[in-house]
Amino acid sequence: MERIMEIKGSCLCGAVAFVIAGTPKSMGSCHCSRCRKLGTSTVVFVGRDQFRLTRGREMIETIAPPPGSTYMRSFCKGCGTSLGEPLSPDEAFPINAQCLDGDPGLRISYHEFTSDAPAWAPAGQTGAK
Ligand SMILES: [Zn+2]
Ligand SMILES: [Zn+2]
């Protein structure tokens, strides 16, 4: 019998809150400059059926993707915390791992755009040996 755990998350000011039922599908880090500057370098991908916004939908502002990119990004209007894509219409979407309050039960399994990582990034995340 498997117990489904719930992981809670929120923005810094607490206006936006959500729960993830069970373990997210994946966790990864993107080192491109856009993800870094938005503060969403490390995300968990969650399925639509396991993600529930519990508070603050009206506080979420969404930034349209620039030409050539597909990812929308959202943040809290109250505190600026980057949230990932909690309003995505997709079946699975990224949520900023920094917003999680509990241990999601999985670890970073991939790194993207490591060649774009800054020189000060830890070895192993820069693409350098
Ligand atoms: Zn907030
Ligand atoms: Zn990126």
UniProtKB/TrEMBL annotation:
Protein family: Belongs to the Gfa family.
Highest taxon of source: Bacteria
Keyword Lyase: yes
Keywords: Lyase, Metal-binding, Zinc
Keyword NADP: no
Name of the protein described by the UniProt record: GFA family protein
Pfam families, alphabetized: GFA
Domain annotation CENP-V/GFA: ranges: 7-111
InterPro entries per record: CENP-V/GFA (IPR006913), Mss4-like_sf (IPR011057)
